[in-house]
Structures are given as structure tokens and as C-alpha cells.
Design goal:
single chain, about 15% strand, 8-stranded mixed β-sheet, Rossmann fold, alpha/beta, 13 strands
Length: about 425
């Protein structure tokens, strides 16, 4: 039997080989941190195009500099592959795969389960497996642990299992993978020790919690907190509009209070992989215990309804110009889920495009971070980003501000647009060409 201390020392001395499953917005930054610290990293992904890009030193995520990956690959320190049988060559396996919702807004663990089952035949004694994908409390113990034990492993003695939720915030200038404190919970005390060894050398601060369930709940709490507060300001935006009050001005004023207030801002809906999804993981699991999460579900209803509210505002704005939404040309500004990134996961802009097109609008978009509309689940537009010039802007019946990228020339847009519907508070409302939504 491989001794725990010997395995921990392997991580401390950076002789351990790290396997990362899923090389997207979570897995790729994590791989970079391990490479920076001198570890050998095997990157696993089912997308051959991603693997080929990494071998060529090309990044498919805009804000990630892969120069160190190219150097590491040339030195044999970074080994990207689609061959999961090589998982047996690693000392750690870190699962960074999607956990979306299905069509019934219930947890879809298919990526996690299928990845694990692909890895099971190649697991070896002494390995540690860490799940980073956001999920409901109990997933690690109820779904992963039994499958690993069926392979003949004893969790906590010859195989180690932890849950450590990702906290990536793409293109955040103030925090990176290494500087964001990392929560980690182990299935056993020995698992927790291995989890700390796995992350201690690449993360400034590791926060141990008592169990994988506590770690899973921590992630759900973080994002449910944000979802509920965003729902609050989204609802207040509608109230403030009827009262003739600029809610963005109110939020900025309230944010000057040095205690007891945290600013959240309204928008066209929720985006990203976490906030629109995580609360529904908790509400689904809570039903198993006979608990109703009314507050969370109400917040979800408010946030899900925001694209419909925005579409109604577009129709109202066009009506002031004597136009119907049907046949009107509408330019969507920004289709990434948040400013200054190329991340399209759960972007509310896509929902806006679908709803407007269904009403007969002629849709175009401009996004300096997304040159071509990507292939994403359930949505597809055969469109490319148009270049913004005074001439192109002036041709559209309506410009809909959906994502407020810094690269947009906001003054030029304002001066040349026939009509603007603003969901991000970029413009003062003048009741002639600008409308707040």
C-alpha cells in the first residue's frame, strides 16, 4: 500500500503528475498554474481541436495567454491528449467538466459521470481525485464514491477523494486562479490531507471544510447569494422605471455607504455557467428532503423573466418611432455573458436574439470578443460580428445594449443610432432616442 506521507511529499516536491479533465474556462487556467509551479500536467479533453490548438501554442480562450503552455509542451511538461487511458500515468485527477441543467431545469451530471466512468479502468492506488464542477451537496459521496469503490479501492486508504469548487472569474484584473482562496472538503481526514497537498503549491490560501458536502454547499451558497440579489435589483429596476427613478444612479449612491451594503446591478438576464444554474441544483436536491426553497425559486423566476421584459421594452421603443418589431433591423451590442470576455455560457444575449427573431426582427450583432457566433447547445445563429462605424450603426432601426464591453465607442454609438435600448445603464435616458430596459 502506498503511504499517505509519501504521496503528499510527491506533491510537495512537485514530482507529482497532474491530470486535468476538461480544458475550458476552469481547467485551462488551472493547468497554467500547475505548469508555472513546475509540475508536469496531462490535459484531457474530448475536443481534438482544443488539443491541437494547445500543441500549436494557440489559445481558444481570449484572456488566457498560452505561451507557457507552448513552452511547457515543447519541454515535455504539458501533455494535452484525448486519450483517457493515459490517466493511469497521473497522481491526481481534477474534474473540470460542465454541470448544466436539462430541459426540465434539473441537474445534468452526465458530463461528470461519463468522464468518471471513462477514467475508472485506469485509476490506480495512491491517486487523488478532485471534483471542481459545481453541483448539489452530496454529489461526491453519492455519485463518485460508490463508483470508485466498485473498482476495489478503499477511499481514504488507497484512493483519495475531495471536492474543491472552482472560483474562476474570467478576465478579472484583481484576482487570478492562484490568489482566489480555495475551499476544499475531503471524504475522509486522509482525503482532506491529500486535497491540501494537491492545491497548496498553486493556491495562496486553501480553506479546509469538514466534508465534501460542506464544500459543495459553499459553492451553491456563493452563487445563490448573487442570483437572489441580482433578482432583487432586476425587480427594483422595473419598480423604479414606473416611478421615474434611475436605479443605476440609486445603486451608485447606495454603494457609497461603507458598511452593510453591497452593490448589485440589473441587466437583461443572468449569464455565465454558475449563477443561472447553481440555485436550481440546490432547489432540486432540497425536494429530496421535503424542503421548499420558495425564496430561491422566486428569484429564479424574476431573473428568467428579464429577457421578456427587455423584448417588451424594445417593442415599446420601436412603437415610439412608428415601427413594429416585425421587419425592424436590430443590432445586439455584446453577446458574451459579461463585459470584456469571450465567454458565451448561458449568455442572456442569445435568449434576446431568439425571442426577437421569433417576433420577426432582423437580427445582427457586434462583439469585439466574439467574431463569429459559436456553436453552443440549443442555439445557433449563422452570424458574424459586424464592424461598428457611424454608417453601419445609423442603418439599424434599434441598437440593443446587452453587454457593455469597454472596447465599444459608446459616444459614437449614441451619436449615430436611430434608437437605443440600454440594459446596462450606459446612457442617460432622454425619451427620444434612448430607453432604459
Amino acid at each position: 500500500m502506498i503511504k499517505l506521507k509519501e504521496q503528499i511529499e510527491k506533491f510537495n516536491s512537485k514530482k507529482a503528475v497532474i491530470g486535468i479533465i476538461g480544458l475550458g474556462y476552469v481547467g485551462l487556467p488551472l493547468a497554467l498554474e500547475y505548469l508555472i509551479q513546475g509540475y508536469t500536467v496531462m490535459g484531457f479533453d474530448i475536443d481534438q481541436q482544443k488539443i491541437d490548438s494547445l500543441k500549436q501554442g494557440k489559445s481558444y480562450i481570449e484572456h488566457i495567454d498560452v505561451s507557457i503552455i507552448k513552452t511547457s509542451h515543447d519541454k515535455g511538461k504539458f501533455l494535452p491528449t484525448t486519450d483517457f487511458s493515459k490517466a493511469g500515468q497521473t497522481d491526481a485527477l481534477i474534474l473540470c467538466v460542465p454541470t448544466p441543467l436539462n430541459e426540465h431545469r434539473e441537474p445534468d451530471l452526465s458530463y461528470v459521470i461519463s468522464s468518471l466512468e471513462t477514467l475508472l479502468p485506469y485509476m490506480k492506488k495512491g491517486q487523488v481525485l478532485s471534483l471542481e464542477s459545481t453541483t448539489y451537496p452530496g454529489t461526491t459521496e453519492e455519485e463518485l464514491k460508490p463508483r470508485i469503490e466498485k473498482q476495489g479501492f478503499i477511499i481514504g486508504k488507497d484512493y483519495y477523494l475531495v471536492y474543491s469548487p472552482e472560483r474562476e472569474d474570467p478576465n478579472n484584473p484583481d484576482y487570478s486562479t492562484s490568489t482566489i482562496p480555495k475551499v476544499c472538503g475531503g471524504t475522509t481526514k486522509a482525503c482532506m490531507e491529500m486535497g491540501r497537498a494537491l492545491y497548496d503549491k498553486i493556491i495562496d490560501t486553501v480553506i479546509p471544510v469538514s466534508s465534501t458536502r460542506a464544500a459543495e454547499m459553499t459553492k451553491i451558497l456563493e452563487n445563490t447569494f448573487r442570483a437572489v440579489n441580482i433578482a432583487l435589483v432586476n425587480e427594483l429596476k422595473i419598480v423604479a422605471e414606473h416611478m421615474g427613478i434611475d436605479l443605476f444612479e440609486v445603486i451608485r449612491a447606495a454603494a457609497t455607504k461603507p458598511f452593510g451594503f453591497m452593490p448589485f446591478y440589473p441587466g437583461p438576464g443572468l449569464g455565465g455557467h454558475c449563477i443561472p444554474i447553481d440555485p436550481f441544483y440546490l432547489t432540486w436536491k432540497a425536494r429530496e428532503y421535503g424542503v421548499a426553497t420558495k425564496f430561491i425559486e422566486l428569484a429564479g423566476e424574476v431573473n428568467i423573466s428579464m429577457p421578456d421584459y427587455v423584448v417588451a421594452k424594445v417593442m415599446e421603443a420601436l412603437n415610439t418611432k412608428g415601427k413594429s418589431v416585425k421587419g425592424s433591423s436590430i443590432l445586439i451590442l455584446g453577446i458574451a455573458y459579461k463585459k470584456n470576455v469571450d465567454d458565451m455560457r448561458e449568455s442572456p444575449s442569445v435568449e434576446l436574439m431568439k425571442k426577437l427573431e421569433a417576433k420577426g426582427a432582423l437580427i445582427s450583432y457586434s462583439d469585439p470578443h466574439v467574431p463569429k457566433f459559436p456553436k453552443i447547445r440549443n442555439h445557433q445563429f449563422d452570424l458574424e460580428s459586424i464592424e461598428l462605424t457611424p454608417e453601419t450603426i445609423s442603418k439599424f432601426n434599434c441598437v440593443l445594449v446587452a453587454t457593455d464591453h469597454d472596447k465599444f465607442d459608446w459616444e459614437m454609438i449614441r451619436d449615430n443610432a436611430q434608437l437605443i435600448v440600454d440594459t446596462r445603464g450606459k446612457y442617460n435616458v432622454d425619451n427620444k432616442t434612448s430607453f432604459r430596459a
